[in-house]
Design a protein that fits this description.
Elements (H helix, E strand, L loop, with lengths): L2 E6 L3 H12 L4 E7 L2 H11 L3 E5 L7 H6 L8 E6 L5 H6 L4 E4 L4 H15 L10 E4 L2 E4 L5 E7 L2 E6 L3 E4 L3 H8 L4 E5 L2 E4 L3 E6 L5 E5 L4 E4 L9
Parallel strand pairs: 1-2, 1-3, 3-4, 4-5
Antiparallel strand pairs: 6-7, 8-9, 8-12, 9-10, 11-12, 13-14, 14-15
């Protein structure tokens, strides 16, 4: 197969080196480049690459955080590229294909590409786990621990009983990953874990109000009222 490939690297010389190495591979088609986290997220959404070479230390959003916040649609294969070996554990927690430690040579890149080709022959993996940022690390979050979720512009705030986590993604995208059977969107800006609902009270003009087990009350708009039966 031909791998539509995106290079994400904030240093131009490093991008040029990788592009030159990849140009000689007959099954690699470089479809774009990006130099920071937001540009990389947009390129992934717009170009739908099969493979992304992703520097971990990029401006605004780290490479690991970017992968953790990708949508649940067709997720590209990820190869992390970095000068710091201490990121390896977090990289493989994100199901990365490989971890290229700078400076790497052509032989090391070829071994990496062999892994990419082998992975492409395997069945499609299950839905990705949900990782949330905690300081400079990522933590695997059990979806069952989520009580409710609220949308804040281009972010979502995930509420558990003990903590809140801010993720750079849309509410609908997160709900798709979590699964419609466990979570219900009750408002343009809110979604709830169905298992956390304590009461549902009708209000005016078809609206309602839901009370969660911890006491949080949220409006259920008429548009989304059907999600709760």
């Amino acid at each position: 197969m031909m791998f539509r490939t995106l290079i994400v690297e904030d240093e131009a010389p490093a991008r040029d080196k990788l592009r030159r190495m990849l140009d000689s591979e007959t099954d690699i088609d470089i479809v774009g480049e990006a130099a920071d986290g937001p540009a990389a997220a947009k390129a992934i959404a717009d170009l739908s690459p099969d493979l992304v070479f992703l520097d971990i230390q990029i401006p605004e959003i780290s490479g690991i955080e970017l992968v953790a916040q990708l949508g649940s649609g067709k997720t590209p294969l990820i190869v992390f590229v970095t000068a710091h070996a201490d990121y390896a554990a977090s990289a493989f927690d994100c199901d990365a294909i490989d971890y290229l430690l700078k400076p790497y040579d052509r032989d090391r890149l070829c071994r990496c590409l062999d892994r990419v080709r082998q992975r492409s022959l395997q069945p499609t993996p299950p839905v990705r786990p949900l990782f949330v940022p905690v300081g400079d690390r990522l933590r695997l979050l059990d979806p069952a621990s989520i009580v409710w979720i609220e949308s804040e512009d281009n972010y979502v705030r995930v509420h558990t009983r003990e903590h809140e986590y801010l993720l750079r993604r849309t509410l609908q995208d997160l709900l798709t990953q979590l699964g419609d059977r466990s979570f219900a969107r009750v408002h343009r800006f809110h979604a709830v874990n169905i298992a956390e609902i304590e009461t549902l009270s009708p209000r005016f003009r078809g609206d309602a109000e839901v009370t969660l087990r911890g006491g949080t009350r949220l409006r259920v708009s008429r548009r989304y009222r059907h999600a709760l039966g």
